[in-house]
Specification:
It comes from Andreesenia angusta. Pfam families: Lactamase_B_2. One of its GO terms (molecular function) is hydrolase activity. Helix 8 packs parallel to helix 9 (226-239). This protein has 9 helices and 14 strands. It has one domain (4-260): Ribonuclease Z/Hydroxyacylglutathione hydrolase-like (Metallo-beta-lactamase, Chain A, 4-Layer Sandwich). It has helices spanning 34-43, 61-64, 67-74, 82-92, 151-157, 171-176, 181-188, 196-206, 226-239; strands spanning 4-9, 16-20, 25-28, 53-55, 78-81, 100-103, 109-111, 114-120, 129-135, 138-143, 162-166, 213-217, 246-249, 259-260. By secondary structure, it is an alpha/beta fold. The protein is 30% helix and 25% strand. A 7-stranded mixed β-sheet has the order 6-5-4-3-2-1-14. Strands 7-8-9-10-11-12-13 form a 7-stranded mixed β-sheet.
């Protein structure tokens, strides 16, 4: 049993990712009801009671809805930086002090045999984070909910064996869509979300190993669709001579397969 990853769900209606080894099982965000997350875990033969920690990227509801209930129900520690704790604390309900774990940006730590490196990203939240996970010289990284991905983010993602990256919207669909203007500006801004093209350019810039896997996440239901996201990213990679790189999709209503690296 190797280093495993599964996107349980990804999208504006809820986000929850599963990272596991033989010894450790983690959730990155828990933006659905506790009951639904338990069902999704059961669907990949995992138990919520076995989760060793919930790591939180930022305090928006589509990332924290089930965090408090899962922590109370299964005595799970919650890991987030001070800004995120300040933004979400009142939404989580009563927590045991032992399960409140404050982490620092860019300061690595471990949960059992998984090394964890948080890094700062750009989104309209208190202090949002992306995360990279390490086990036995393998690396899994997750980057969603960021309006830009500059040099520091690229360095944090470089060398990933599996990368889940946001491919949120198509700018043309967004511009002619039914979102109000302020929301369009938010999504397109530096504190918003990466477009399909921007996701492709980011992956291209990382120059990943040809055996790496890329998984596209956090697609907008209004301003994107899976085939467009996939083909846009694929076109960028093919133009760069990287057409052999594996690209898969996440889903807003169901889980991906369990990847093992």
């Amino acid at each position: 049993m190797g280093f495993r990853f599964c996107s349980l769900v990804s999208g504006s209606s809820g986000n929850c990712q599963y990272i596991a080894t033989e010894k450790a099982r983690l959730l990155l965000d828990a933006g659905l009801s506790g009951k639904r997350i338990q069902e999704l875990l059961a669907g990949i033969d995992a138990e919520a009671s076995s989760i060793d920690g919930i790591l939180v990227t930022h305090e928006h509801q589509d990332h924290i809805k089930g965090v408090g209930i899962l922590s109370r129900r299964f005595d799970i520690p919650i890991y987030a930086n001070e800004g995120t704790w300040a933004g979400m604390r009142d939404s989580l309900g009563k927590l045991e002090d032992r399960n409140i774990r404050v982490i620092k940006n860019s300061e690595s730590f471990e949960i059992k045999d998984i090394g964890i490196s948080p890094f700062s990203i750009s989104h309209d939240a208190r202090d949002p984070l992306g995360y990279s996970f390490y086990n036995k010289n393998k690396k899994i990284s997750v980057l969603t909910d960021t309006g830009v991905a500059g040099n520091e983010v690229e360095e944090a993602l470089r060398g990933s064996d599996l990368l889940m990256v946001e491919s949120n919207h198509d700018p043309n669909m967004l511009k002619i869509g039914r979102y109000p203007q302020f929301l369009k500006q938010r999504v397109l801004g530096k504190l918003g979300h990466l477009s399909n093209e921007e996701a492709g350019v980011l992956v291209r810039n990382l120059d990943l190993n040809e055996n790496a896997r890329v998984v596209l996440g956090h697609l907008s239901m209004e301003n994107n669709f899976p085939e467009l996201a996939y083909q846009t990213v694929r076109n960028v990679l093919e133009d760069a001579g990287m057409g052999s790189l594996s690209v898969d999709m996440t889903y807003r209503d169901r889980s991906t397969k369990v990847y093992e690296i």
